Amino acid sequence: MTAVEQPARGGTGSGPVRRPARVPFPVVDEIARHCLQEEEPETVHIEVHLPGRLDPDRLRTAFTEALHRHSRILMRQAPGRWYRRRYEWELTRDPDVEVVGFPPPGPNSLRDARTRALTNAPPLTASPPIRLEVVDEDGRSDGTVLFLTINHTALDGPACLRVLATAAELYGGRDNSPAAPPVRAAGTTAPPVEVPSSWSPPAHVAPGAPEPSPGNGMLVTELPLPHRPKGSPYTVNDQLMVTTALMIAHWNREHGVRPRPMRITMPVDDRPRDSTMPIGNGTRLVEVPFAPEELDPSDMPGLLRRTATRTRALRSLPRPQLGHGAALLTAPWAPVGVRAALTRGLRRAAAPWTSTTLLSNIGRVPYPLDFGEEAGRASAVWFSAPARMPRGLTVTTASTAGRLHLALRWSRTLLGHGDGAHLRDLFEHYLHTTEVTR
Predict the structure, then answer these.
(1) Within 10 A of 379 (CB to CB), how many other CB atoms are there?
(2) 102-111 burial, b for 16+ CB within 10 Å, e for fewer?
(3) pTM for the whole thing?
(4) Nearest to 25 by CA among 122, 151, 188, 162
(5) Is 82 exposed, middle or buried (0-12, 13-18, 19+ CB in 10 A)?
(6) Torsions phi, psi of 394, nearest 5?
(7) Same domain, 161 and 270
């Protein structure tokens, strides 16, 4: 999604009021809009922990100004007739609703806020389709947690984190410019390896002990960043990719599933992180394949090198955000209702070929998220991505203050909370095994 100029201001009473500017849904937004389900809302959750307290009025003022500085976020779905050929975003001058909320404190404030982030998506019909809640950290007299809940049909996590960084700078008066991205070592090219055919259905996460209620469950935890020898040809992202693959392979063996090739979806984001960052859904998705025989922890150096070669090649390939087929589905050759029904049908038919899971590694959070002397700088930042079936599980990671912040999110029709805790333990175990010294 690209940035668009702010719509013209309304008239002054002596002339007509201009109609707000409209923008057709980009491909990612339209596919997501076609496939909405009330049982499993498509939300992205961002959770930012601060050591101090925030002044409500100052925060509202700063966040509202940040919305205006990144005015592409001020949008709502425009109304339209059933036979329209496109969904459109209607850009607004100001927010339609109060975005910043302060829920009353309580003994389970964090748990309740996380539940709301998974179950209550901000509506697409009100601008902007996000919600910011300020929650007192349980058991602490001075800690604060910011919960940013995003309707993923409209926006993604990195774009909204950019807006939050602007709000932090406006609130605290301190520089929140992004740090320079880390430089990846060139390394040596690993020998080519045979990879599974994309025409073969990949492994899926074996069912655990699903819960009776629909929706998503989530578990967040903090881990040490994995050690990586200086000059290694692989990155922490490659270590996380290998860890995720080994975690699921172990889980499936425990549940009696025959080994199958695995494909892990990896979002790639090429946007700048400064104030010029386009706001919207700006990542493209690639799939990293693994053959069953590759997932051998005893050959960890080789597995890491092969994974690094694949992720480097996939990142460099130009590719539409959702592939070439999505562009055809979103072409305005029929009313949106017809194309929505077709898209949902194709999604169901393609379920066996859906990737095993999604690993979204934000990496080192590029902004200090420094809210000034009283509130302080972010000590932890968690993200989570939607986990609808047929994948049913997503793994999201970010690093802040030298720590890895992991969020496992799952469909309750596939897994239960105890399953999530076991997967977390497996992730921690295999993450440690990637810390090879050669």
Answers:
(1) 15
(2) eeeeeeebbe
(3) 0.92
(4) 151
(5) exposed
(6) -130, 150
(7) no
CATH number at residue 49: 3.30.559.10
Structure tokens at 371: 């809210």
The partner residues of 91 in beta bridges, in order of sequence, read 75
138, 110 contact by CB (below 8 A): yes
- Tell me what percent of the residues of the chain surpass a pLDDT of 90: 78
**DSSP-assigned letter for residue 208:** -
Residue 193 lies in a domain: no
User: Is 436 strand, coil or helix?
Assistant: coil
Residue type, 9: R
Query: What CA–CA distance (Å, rounded) separates 414 from 387?
Result: 10
Q: Please, which residues have CB within 8 angstroms of residue 194's CB and are 6 or more apart in sequence?
A: 291
Distance of CA 220 to the CA centre of its chain: 14
Phi and psi angles of residue 60, each rounded to the nearest 5 degrees, phi first: -60, -45
Instruction: Using a pLDDT cut of 70, give the percent of the chain over it.
Output: 89
* Residue tagged 């975003």 (tokens): 89
pLDDT band at 8 (very low <50, low <70, confident <90, very high): very low
- Cβ neighbors of 258 (< 8 A, separation 6 or more) are none
Residue that terminates a domain, selected from 119, 140, 172: 172
Could you tell me if 222 and 134 lie in one domain? Answer: no
- Find residue 218's DSSP bridge partners: 409
Written as one letter, the residue type at 225 is: L
CA distance 156 to 152: 6
For residue 158, being part of any structural domain is answered with yes
- Domain of residue 63, residue span: 22-172
Instruction: Indicate if 100 and 235 belong to the same structural domain.
Output: no
Q: Residues 249, 123: one domain?
A: no
DSSP secondary structure letters along 143-183: -EEEEEEEETTT--HHHHHHHHHHHHHHHH-S--PPPPPPP
Classified as helix, coil or strand, 105 is: coil
Task: Give the span between the Cα atoms of 239 and 227, in whole angstroms.
Answer: 10
Q: What tens digit of pLDDT does each residue of 219-261 get?
A: 999 999 999 988 899 999 999 999 999 999 999 999 999 999 9
CB atoms inside a 10 Å sphere around CB 385: 23
Does residue 185 form part of some domain? no
